[in-house]
Every structure is written in structure tokens, then in C-alpha cells.
TrEMBL record:
Coiled coil: none annotated. It comes from the Bacteria. The keyword Cytoplasm does not apply. The chain crosses the membrane at residues 21-39, 59-83, 104-126, 146-169, 190-210, 225-244, 264-284, 304-325, 345-365, 371-391. It holds the Pfam family Acyl_transf_3. Keywords: Membrane, Transmembrane, Transmembrane helix. The keyword DNA damage does not apply. GO terms for molecular function: acyltransferase activity, transferring groups other than amino-acyl groups. This is Acyltransferase 3 domain-containing protein. PANTHER family: BLR4337 PROTEIN, BLR5718 PROTEIN. Residues 17-388 form the Acyltransferase domain.
Length: 402
């Protein structure tokens, strides 16, 4: 690469550094989410500590779980979608698909072959003795359960499907589109942002008529966390990311506009959430009934429509706000942020056995579950990055987990 090429490449990296920073930030939220599930017992995970806690702790567990679930994975799909057009334009559909199969397929194979079994073995120690791993592994392969045991790497599977669909669609369009950067920029207004949220809400409600949120696809096996009921925002946010790149949308969104959506989403979204699941639970318990929380996650019910709408607007508003916030305030890579960026994908892949092992080490410590979650988060998040850093010193690991 000549001097001019290096200048252009550095300029490009500076422009997208905020998305790299946003990615490691969201991946930290992923680790925290799984710790939240570990200590609250709410959600799908390898190990959930069976501990009782009061209503305030339950409210705080639920608040973090619901608010984070609404936007964090959708934001990762947005980032992935944003980077896809450049790669597709540079490589063409065939090479793009081949590179995605390798880039995403190798980590998935490594996960189902090594990381998932290791996590199962560690989680088995909660029952006083490790399981017969030889017998378990044979059954794991013969039963084809390994096809579903992707753990958090369901993200890569869906991303691979979306990437292939995008490449096939682009290849079938016919006339090549104008080169990126030569297309007419699209100006975003309040109506277009609201339209995306409404589209996500409608699609989520329809999907949950047949596949409720929080229910794994196909059958419940350890490590199957594919919850199609939440996929509506993921698919549409991936598409929005593509459109934002191909039409230079992000450059046209002012900081004030994005932060206004961010501010009002938080100001209105959090109280509205309280009017949903928590208020419903309080009313049900006051009448001596068992709260029907599942009504908010599927079926032809007003609760499901309410939650899908709240979730969609929270997803879009928070995502928009975080994108412009990181673009304006965190658009650079220092030593620390470069380290976090380089190791974030490794953290995403390798964190399950680390946090399960950490939780088991302190499971006999008598402390409120919420406090244990905070303390373990302070210990395990840095540990996950350290482990990723060490593992990535191996060349083949560095190649596929960066």
C-alpha cells in the first residue's frame, strides 16, 4: 500500500472507529446479560443459581434484562449490516459468501466442538461431579444436538443467513448499483425513525403469534438460545445498517437529532416498561392470581402488542442515540480501546465457560444475588478480555477470533 493509500485507509478507520468502540461496549453488555440470567434465573443460560431474592432485586434484574434485551443484539446486527456493503462491493457475491462462510463458520465449529462441551462440563460440576463427558460427547454428536448448541453464537448463524441472503439479492438485482459514496444521501427525519420502529413492532407481534419470545427454536437442549421471537429487530436492524452505509445516512444525522431520540426514549420508555410487566404482576398478585408474564411475549393478546411496540421503539431510540453518541464522543482508538476492539469478538465466543466457572466458584458465598452479580461482573468482564488476549496469541486463534 502506497502513502496515499495508507492515508485513505487511516481516514476510513477513523470514521468507523466509533462503531468498533460501540461493538465492544455491546459485547460487554452481552456478558452482563448472561450474568444477569445467572443470578436472576430469568432467561436461558448454562447455569442459573437457584437463590431467592426480594421484589426490589427482582425489579432491578428485570429492568436490566428487559431494557438491554430490547436493543443490544439489534445494535450488533446494525453494525454488521453497516460493514457488509463495502465488503460485498469489494469482493463480489461469490467471494463475499465464501469469506462469510469461513469467517463465521470456523468460530461456530470451534464453539460446538470445544467451547460448548467445556461449558457443559463446568456446569456439570454444580451437581458435585462432572458428567461422563465421553458418553455425553458421543450422544451429543449422534443426536445432532450439536447443531442447536451454538450458545451465544446463534448470532453468527443468523448473521451468516442474512449475509448470504443479502449477497444473493444483490447478485439477482441485475444492473449494478452506483458505487458506495456516489449514491444520493438519505436524510433521516422523525417519521422515518418511527416507521422503522413500527415495522419492527408489527413484525415482532406477528412472529410471536407462532414463536413466543423467550422460547428456544426447535427443542430445548443446553446451549440452544435461538429465540426467534426476538429476531424481528435483528433482521430489520441488519437491513437498516446496510441502508445507512449505502446511502451515507449516519453522516446526515445530527448529534442533536440522535440524542433527542435517545433522551426521550429513556424518559418515556422506562416508565412505560413499569406499566407493563411489573404493573401487571402487582395487579395479579393483589388479586391472589399468578402473574401471566408469558402474555407479553406472544399470542394474540394486547400485552404482546404492547410489549412488541415498547420494545421496538426502545430498540430504535436507544440504538440511534448510542450511534451518534459514540460517533461524536468515542470516535478514536487509543491503547485501551484498541485492546478492547481486538479482543471483543474473542470475549463474545469464549465468555460462557469463564462466567459459568466464576459463578460456581462463589456459589456457596452467602450474599444477595444482585450484589454477587455486580461483584462478579467487575471481576469476570476484565478476565474475559484477558483470556481472549492470551488465546489470541496463538496465530490460528488470532486469525479467526479478531
Amino acid at each position: 500500500m502506497d502513502a496515499q493509500g495508507k492515508v485513505e485507509e487511516n481516514a476510513r478507520l477513523d470514521r468507523v472507529a466509533f462503531l468498533d468502540n460501540l461493538k465492544w461496549f455491546v459485547i460487554i453488555l452481552v456478558v452482563l446479560m448472561h450474568l444477569n440470567v445467572t443470578y436472576s434465573g430469568n432467561g436461558l443460560w448454562y447455569y442459573r443459581e437457584q437463590a431467592s431474592y426480594g421484589p426490589l432485586s427482582g425489579l432491578l434484574f428485570g429492568l436490566y434484562g428487559s431494557l438491554t434485551q430490547a436493543y443490544f443484539m439489534g445494535l450488533l446486527f446494525f453494525i454488521s449490516g453497516y460493514f457488509s456493503p463495502d465488503s460485498l462491493e469489494r469482493k463480489g457475491p461469490a467471494r463475499f459468501i465464501r469469506s462469510r462462510l469461513i469467517r463465521l463458520g470456523v468460530p461456530m465449529l470451534a464453539y460446538v466442538a470445544i467451547v460448548h462441551p467445556l461449558t457443559i462440563w463446568i456446569a456439570g460440576l454444580a451437581d458435585s461431579a462432572a458428567p461422563d463427558m465421553a458418553g455425553w460427547y458421543v450422544d451429543y454428536v449422534v443426536s445432532l444436538d450439536f447443531l442447536l448448541s451454538l450458545g451465544p453464537l446463534w448470532f453468527l448463524l443468523l448473521l451468516l443467513v442474512l449475509s448470504i441472503a443479502y449477497a444473493v439479492w444483490q447478485g439477482a438485482v441485475g444492473e449494478p448499483a452506483p458505487a458506495i459514496g456516489q449514491r444520493k444521501p438519505f436524510q433521516v427525519g422523525h417519521r422515518s425513525v418511527a416507521a422503522v420502529a413500527v415495522l419492527i413492532a408489527v413484525l415482532a407481534f406477528l412472529v410471536r403469534l407462532v414463536q413466543p419470545g423467550g422460547v428456544p427454536l426447535f427443542k430445548a437442549v443446553p446451549g440452544n438460545f435461538m429465540q426467534v421471537g426476538f429476531f424481528a429487530s435483528y433482521v430489520l436492524m441488519f437491513a437498516v445498517g446496510i441502508l445507512c452505509r449505502t446511502h451515507d445516512v449516519l453522516d446526515g444525522i445530527s448529534y442533536r437529532f440522535g440524542m433527542r431520540w435517545f433522551k426521550w426514549t429513556l424518559i418515556l420508555g422506562i416508565p412505560v416498561w413499569f406499566l407493563g410487566i411489573p404493573a401487571s404482576a402487582i395487579v395479579a398478585e393483589s388479586h391472589g392470581a399468578v402473574p401471566d408474564i408469558g402474555a407479553f411475549f406472544g399470542g394474540f393478546r394486547w400485552q404482546s402488542a404492547f410489549y412488541a411496540t415498547w420494545e421496538a421503539f426502545f430498540c430504535v431510540g436507544v440504538s440511534l442515540g448510542l450511534v451518534v453518541l459514540f460517533r461524536e464522543k468515542f470516535n478514536g482508538l487509543g491503547k485501551l480501546t484498541h485492546f478492547l476492539t481486538q479482543n471483543s469478538f474473542g470475549v463474545y465466543v469464549f465468555h460462557p465457560p469463564i462466567i459459568v466457572a466464576g459463578a460456581l466458584l462463589v456459589r456457596n458465598v452467602q450474599a444477595p444475588p444482585l450484589l454477587k452479580m455486580y461483584v462478579m461482573a467487575a471481576v469476570l468482564v476484565p478476565l474475559c478480555f484477558a483470556v481472549s488476549h492470551v488465546l489470541r496469541k496463538v496465530p490460528v486463534v488470532r486469525r479467526y477470533f479478531s
